[in-house]
Amino acid sequence: MLATGPTKRQFLALMLRSLIHALVCVVLLGVFGVFARAADVLAPVPTTLKAKKVSVIVIPVQDEISEPIHYILRRGLKQGADVVVLDMKTPGGRIDVTFDIFEDLKKFSGQTITYVNNEAMSAGALIAVCTDEIYFAPLGVIGAAAPVTGEGKDLEKTMKGKVVSYVTGKARAVAEGKGRYREQVVTAMIDDDTELKIDGKVLKEKGKLLTLTLTEASAKYGDPAQPLLAAGIAKDIDDLLTQKYGAGNYEKLTFEVTWSEKLAQILSMRLVVQALLALGALAIYIEFKIPGFGVFGITGAVLLGLVFFGSYFSGLSGHEPILVFAIGVILLALELAFFHTAGVFGIIGLMMMGGSLLWAMADFWPNQPISVAWSGDLLLVPLQNMLIAVVVAGVLLALIARFLPHGWIWQRLAVGGAVSGAGVATEVLNEQEALVGREGIAATSLFPSGQVEIDGRRHEARLEVGSVQAGTPIRVVRRTSFGLVVEEKKS
Question: Once rounded to an integer, what is the mean pLDDT over residues 223-249?
């Protein structure tokens, strides 16, 4: 009995039609939006303008400074807000992550504020000193930023001198221009061999690290007098924002470190990214090469989805790469199922899919110059990840071909292989060559691809043009690397 139920390609055809309709709606909405925006621009300006509220993103810097905090900070800085407030209560953390945060703070075009919510010690103090302003809670303290080993022990003397010099230089470079005493203060926090003396008053003797209470950070020095470090005192962040911008003149959004950032820490590791890319590409390739719906396609989509998930929650990209990837998949599917445009749609689709993966893994920033955005340094790691993934996927496919020649996977991977056949690839290809000119029937509907039945055996096949229903007589025109090409037999 012939199979007349929906095939994978029929299901794909229905899905693609729905997606095309959705895309048309999106385009129409976009055009409508452009005209609406133009109407707004051309409309008369009202005599009374409502003041725009200051957009504020609050990012918690709590507990130990580690990758999840860096990820959520980077994602928050890329939101395009006017102000980012670091709600800080930390004993310190990793110096390499602190340096990464330095670089991200420099790329942010808005204002950065640290709210010392009780304590900003060690790495937290360095980050705070590098923001534009520092506000203190009533019992806030800041300081003691000397580098130590991963176990919290003091460095050996020679190594300590080198590390302290390097860390001090990095911190002073970022803190430069953010206050009259910032550079001196950050040096005294890091180097216990430095004396801090301002207006004839010794604030820190040699042999100690500088730690400041609210009172000490708020003390004013110089002429005109300026506070040593604190821009003000606030009982909480709302009080801080009210002092700066007035009640009701700001819009606040608070980020939180959740399991997503912690999972992204694992998913963003280079070996994990490369493995996900390789296995995802391999699974999708197998899905296109075998009949039936789905397990490999779903698996590949999930694996590549994890790459996008890790990139988003690590603050590397937004939602846009996922949309570009989806459009690429649609174009590739249209090429395979409908248009056969000499590969044009397929090539464009593959380029969009690959480009979106590069985009997702690269650290792009809003308003970044094109020359910087597409620099070799920025794309070097993503390109390496994709190259390694392609090589690994190829090796895995070769191993399947080598060690599973008679297994069910390889029977279905054989290019143009018979659906129910049991031979290896070479035998299948020779057998199909002999089918040219033979007649049979469409075992499934061809839209234009599907399955045909010849002498009681099924084969993958496609029409050059048009479509036919299951049970329609057909004739084999030729064999290609991707299966049989058939035509409807005219009575």
Answer: 92
The overall pTM is greater than 0.70: no
Range of the domain at 373: 259-403
> For residue 289, which amino acid is it?
K
Is it the case that residue 358 has pLDDT exceeding 70?
yes
82 contacts: CB under 8 Å, gap ≥ 6: 54, 55, 56, 110, 111
Instruction: Please state which of the ranges 93-97, 135-139, 363-367, 438-442 shows the lowest mean pLDDT.
Output: 363-367
As given in the structure block, the two tokens for residue 402 are 């080598």
Tell me how far apart the alpha carbons of residues 439 and 436 are, in angstroms, rounded to a whole number. Answer: 9
State the DSSP H helix or E strand holding residue 184, giving kind and residue range, or none if neither.
helix 182-190
As a whole number of angstroms, the distance between CA 289 and CA 346 comes to 15
Other Cβ atoms within 10 Å of 430 Cβ, number = 10
- Is residue 205 a contact partner of residue 192, using CB atoms and an 8 Å limit? no
- Nearest residue to 7 (alpha-carbon basis) of 462, 464, 475: 462
Distances (CA, A) of 31 to 20, 21, 36, 324: 17, 15, 9, 19
Half-sphere exposure of 27 (CA within 13 A, CB side): 7
Report d(CA 359, CA 316) in Å as an integer. Answer: 9
Residues 455, 397 share a domain: no
360: which 2 tokens? 């997702």
The answer to whether residues 379 and 358 touch, using CB atoms and an 8 Å cutoff, is: yes
Is 440 within a domain? Answer: yes
Choosing from 220, 254, 288, the residue where a domain stops is 254
Please indicate, yes or no, whether residues 74 and 219 belong to a single structural domain of this protein. Answer: yes
CA-to-CA distance for 303 and 479, rounded, in angstroms?
A: 34
> How many domains does one find in the chain?
3
Residues 252-279: tens digit of each pLDDT? 999 887 787 778 878 878 888 888 888 8
- CA torsion sign for 325, 327, 330, 336 is negative
Same structural domain, 234 and 280: no
